[in-house]
Design a protein that fits this description.
Radius of gyration: 30 Å
CATH topology of the largest domain: Arc Repressor Mutant, subunit A
Structural class: mainly alpha
Shape: rod-shaped
Strand order of the largest sheet: 3-5-4
């Protein structure tokens, strides 16, 4: 088993500017649909194109307020005039949802959900570096980090139970194929006691 100390490269810090750009489609969607009237307009346009006359009648907004809300939806990139857009749109010019804006928001949400949070303390950083997903890739050289790893592995054993050596090996092999080294470390550092081929976890 490699005893070299590895650098915490599993998680990279993301610059704030990159984060903001990645989430911009979600922010635009949230701002655009934060108002109930704009939400009603978007809901109607999700089923079919509609002009200002049709929107005003269906939603019950006066033309002036409707124009304001449509302007905000256009500003946030959520609606647009149906192509080919007239040079001078009037009350009969149809509007449609800008599907590209919603696709971008879905993609941004997928990236956001997939982003792994950066560890916030020394223990989490050590586990993320040496034992991501519960699999041990290297034993750390630093004593504090080694204790963190062994403490985590020891949690796999019940203090109220006795284990045969083969059972210990099976449990440790799930962590790393070099179960002999792990077993020896757990005994040497006092996490497990061995007597007559039987192991118990120390409290």
């Amino acid at each position: 088993m490699d005893a070299e100390t590895t650098q915490p490269t599993a998680i990279e810090a993301t610059p704030d500017a990159i984060k903001e750009n990645a989430l911009e489609p979600l922010v635009a969607l949230a701002n655009g649909l934060f108002d109930l009237d704009r939400l009603r307009i978007a809901a109607l346009l999700s089923s079919r194109p509609a002009n200002r006359m049709e929107l005003s009648e269906a939603i019950g907004l006066p033309q002036r307020e409707l124009l304001r809300q449509l302007g905000l939806l256009e500003y946030f990139g959520l609606v647009k005039l149906q192509e080919p857009a007239p040079r001078q749109p009037d009350q009969y010019s149809p509007y449609v949802l800008d599907e590209e804006a919603f696709r971008a928001a879905r993609q941004a949400m997928g990236k956001y959900r997939g982003r792994k949070p950066r560890p916030t303390d020394a223990r989490e950083m050590t586990l993320e570096t040496f034992m991501p997903g519960g699999k041990l890739y290297a034993l750390p050289r630093k004593h504090e980090q080694l204790i963190t790893i062994l403490t985590e592995i020891a949690q796999k054993f019940d203090t109220e139970r006795q284990y045969k050596e083969q059972e210990v090996n099976v449990i440790l092999e799930e962590v790393n194929e070099d179960y002999c080294t792990l077993r020896r470390c757990l005994v040497d550092y006092g996490y497990l006691s061995r007597s007559g081929g039987v192991y118990v976890r120390n409290t």
